[in-house]
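Exam revision sheet. Question 4 asks you to relate a sequence to its structure. Input first:
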Amino acid sequence: MQFGFSYVGLIYLAMLFIPNGIWTKNQPKGYAEYEAKENKILLAFERVGQFIVTPVAVLFSDFNYKGWNFWIVVLGISFLMMVLYDIAWVRYFKSEKTMKDFYRGFCGMPLALATYPVFAFLLLGIYGGNILMCIGAIILGIGHIGIHTQHAREVYGKKPKKKLPVRIIFGVLKGAGALLLVLVFGFFIVAIAGRNANQIKRAWAYRNGVNEQIYVQLDGSEGFINVFGTSESNPVIISLHGGPGAPSSFVDYDWQDYLADDYTIVSWDETGCGRSYYHNADVNPDNTGLSFEQQLADLDALVDYCCDRFGQNQVIILGHSYGSMLGSTYVMEHPEKVSAYIGVGQCVNETDYYGEVYAYEDALRIAQEQGDDTSAMEAAYEDFMSDLSLEHLLTLRTYTTAYHPQTDMTDTATAAAIYSPILGVDDARWYLLEIEATMGDPLYMELEAPLEDTMMNFNLYDIGQYQVPVLFISGSCDWACPSELVETYADEHGLQYVAMEGCGHSPQGQHPDQFADIIRGFLG
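Answer key, structure tokens:
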């Protein structure tokens, strides 16, 4: 939730109050008789709802236009409801102004003058991700719609009963529709409530430190970073996500918050993906110039920015999966700028997808020892080796995963995403792009294609030696970047290695507190 003037909220209130002001001089005949019999409890709900909705509409900038994206549909439907509401008022003012005129439906919406504004403000709350508006609209709806439903029943009387089969069919349809609405709106309201609670909690926790989502100038373009911590004088951890092109800043706060008392956390949407991509998409929609070398140069600029801003001589680099390729290479090239390195799901040897081949061969061995039919797995492997596409990779993993079960299925990352305090439109847009890639859409792979050579040729043994303290953390059941390869490399080079038992490729998204404790113990 963001305090600030909302011009959209002001427009909505004007569309609400102006016709209501005119109505006070044009009430339907006999309305005072019905008003005198209004339910006091419903009237209290109506007044409380009005008390919440009215100031919230103009005091939070969440409701303002945020650019052309899929959320604009929600705002558009909400605004259309307000337009239909005002048109329904025009129709009433041109009528004979009877009670039946007042309670006529409009464009399929019963009690149009009561229901349209309530749903409009509820959708406005969902669009803005503001739980106060959502709660206010619900309370207002209970009171306002409840009162006028009672009035309408008195005006129209009881409807004649339909035949039993018709009543059953309509009852089932109404029940199903109501359940669907409750589930959909309920999901959004619960998600918004959790999101707002996290925003408030973190705003308070970091009130004396830093809590920003900003774009900073790097070597080749501006990049998005999420920066937070209780003190700007703390050491800096720069977190590099996996992929390539799988930004996770909107989820990683879940484990990073455990470290933010002692460290300033900087999560970067790496060049060419996520918010960094969309921020530059107008001038570079095709990711022209994207390369591993450019990402290294941008990371170096980010390190310099962090050192300058926070008064540090060095930073701590943490890389997950693909981020461990980027992080390891940078640390070996610039040891003077790095005090420690942490590799999570560390990539060791990805030459010609060696890690995937290693996992496949191990799964094949287990299957053959069990006497299982391996023809489908072998065919999937051949398909993958002939066409190294994401679709074929995921197909192959469906076979190999059966022989590499993850024994600990704890998941905190999903809830962290749903209740994310920083989840933005561009985060969601990019995540949908990743999902579409698993269904064969080529755009994601085309945008990240310049990094494919690095993915196909990275070998930790060939790029140099670490000259800073190093910690590797793997899930013991990680076969995306096989933990056995990481442990072997660590043993051979005398580096610290910790396996989180039963976890998979992203242990930080399974046991964030335990993960943070391991890091804190390493860094001292």
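Marking note for examiners. The chain has 21 helices and eight strands.
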